Amino acid sequence: MKSLVSLLVLAATVPAFADDPAPAADPLSFNIGAVSDYRYRGISQTRLKPALQGGIDYAAANGFYVGTWASTIKWIKDAGGDGQVELDLYGGYKTEVAQGLTLDVGVLQYLYPSNKLNPSANTLEVYGALSYGPFTAKYSHSATNLFGFPSSKNSGYLDVSANVDLGDGLTLTPHVGHQTVKHNSAASYTDYSLTLAKGFAGLVVSGAIVGTDANKTAYANPVTARFMGKTTLVVGLKKTF
């Protein structure tokens, strides 16, 4: 969900035998990290400043999963509200529907505790994604107002990405998405990114070129007047355990 791709593999130092069953993957995982700028759908959530992030995921063997993820933010206070944290709660089901084709459907609640904005910044989305090989196409649909935009229920975000294994722990992830804000064409825009990530003994270091064609007035920070969707390099460090 909004986090950078990372994986930590733990190998047990015990003898292996051909007829032994493979050990079951641990369904519970944790992640913690930092980024130089928290960009969500191409828009800075931290006034172009760094953020601390972390989450917990539980993935059952039958395909169902739940999780939570949090990040420090600045945009709620900048918009005249309160709160400096985004908390995401999500759950869904992932399964292979045909050979090599995976379906992922779920619900995601974005919470901004005590945000005091009117309309509230809290947002509920339902989503569905199809993955084939390295490619994924995903659509997210807001069942409430979208991040405090008035009368924006039924907004949608469509994105396409790929996760290309370059070998030696390197992955390249191109992405393009389009956010439609219901009843607000000036706030609708396209975002894009290209991320290169490298794993180092359980840590993943990443660099991403991120940008948008968003309206510079609609997405100007109310405190600094700076455009929050400008093209920039975002670097990150993440550990999963």
List the helices and strands and how they pair.
Layout: E1 28-35, E2 39-40, E3 43-44, E4 51-59, E5 64-72, H1 75-78, E6 85-98, E7 101-111, E8 123-132, E9 135-142, E10 156-162, E11 164-167, E12 170-180, E13 189-200, E14 203-212, E15 232-240
Antiparallel strand pairs: 1-4, 1-15, 2-3, 4-5, 5-6, 6-7, 7-8, 8-9, 9-10, 10-12, 11-12, 12-13, 13-14, 14-15
Task: Give an overview in words.
With 241 residues, this protein is mainly beta. The protein has a single domain (28-240), classed as monomeric porin ompg (Porin, Beta Barrel). It is 2% helix and 52% strand. A twelve-stranded antiparallel beta barrel has the order 1-4-5-6-7-8-9-10-12-13-14-15. The protein has a two-stranded antiparallel sheet with strand order 2-3. A hairpin with a 4-residue loop joins strand 4 and strand 5 (64-72). It is globular. Mean pLDDT is 91; it is low at 1-22.
What does this entry show, briefly?
This protein has about 240 residues and is an all-beta fold. It has one domain: monomeric porin ompg (Porin), CATH 2.40.160.40. Helix content is about 0%, strand content about 50%.
Structural class category: mainly beta
Q: Using DSSP, what is the number of strands?
A: 15
Q: Work out the count of structural domains.
A: 1
Return Rg in Å: 19 Å
List the keywords.
single chain, 241 residues, mainly beta, Porin, twelve-stranded antiparallel β-barrel, two-stranded antiparallel ribbon, 1 helix, globular, disordered N terminus
